[in-house]
Write a structure and sequence with these properties.
There is one protein chain. By secondary structure, the chain is α/β, with parallel strands linked by helices. The chain has a domain at about 80-145. Helices cover about 35% and strands about 25% of the residues. It is built from 8 helices and 9 strands. The strands form 2 sheets. A 6-stranded mixed beta sheet has the order 5-6-7-3-8-9, with helices on both faces. The chain has a 3-stranded antiparallel beta sheet with strand order 2-1-4, with helices on one face. The longest helix has 16 residues, at about 160-175. The protein is globular. It binds adenosine-5'-triphosphate. Adenosine-5'-triphosphate (ATP) binds next to α1. Keywords: ATP-binding, Nucleotide-binding, Transport.
Length: about 240
Amino acid sequence: MNMLTVKINEAGYEEKQSIIKDIDFSLSSGELIGIIGPNGAGKSTTIKTILGVLEYVNGEVMWKKGSVYAYIPEKPIFYEHLTLWEHLDLLASINGIDDTTLIQRSSEFLEAFKMEKVKHEMPATFSKGMQQKVMIIQALLLKPDVYIIDEPFIGLDPSAIKRFLEIMEQERKRGASILMSTHVLDTAERICDRFILISDGTVVAEGTLDKIQLASGVPDSSLLDCFHIIAEGRS
Ligand SMILES: Nc1ncnc2c1ncn2[C@@H]1O[C@H](COP(=O)(O)OP(=O)(O)OP(=O)(O)O)[C@@H](O)[C@H]1O
């Protein structure tokens, strides 16, 4: 079952500006798709188009009716004067999550990411990795049908990455889908079902690792090697 169908003919930050073009794919229930590509290729722009925040979009983004999504941005955003707990409490009330569920879910995730003892402090004062953890905990709190994640791995310590991957796996078993952009290709190779390789604003290869390897002309190569060959024209 498709949770999200994306058909972008063209999109940009200003009217008629074409930063990305011809990006078509769908994300099914429980699937994890990795968006990969060089700096400036258009990964974040694709994500922003899907989230509906771009000024110019010629195309369509269709969500399964009634589905809830959570976005984990690359750059964390906080209310300056609210504590971590107040962020979670506010998010819960906006999304109709009752107090019992809030307390149960937040204690599970605060503990998983070793954030329990700072829950009454301001996220604005946290380290980069701790801030990233807050964005992840907020997304998990919603128990969404779809996660849209822009580069989750930079900044997290190794045990936080391990916990994050374990929780994402549990979420997929529940039927949640994930669309994730990343530069950490060895991890992506291990966890993603399919890849969308974007270069210069458009899709240059897509599919399973087998299909990407075929496109690169080197059957047994790693995702990183395929990336170099396809996206950067190197061998
Ligand atoms: N707010 C913006 N206004 C105008 N142009 C932008 C804006 N944000 C990004 N761009 C341009 O869009 C293009 C694609 O950028 P994007 O951020 O989507 O790349 P990316 O693949 O996510 O890169 P990275 O791996 O460096 O995060 C770049 O040329 C960039 O300069």
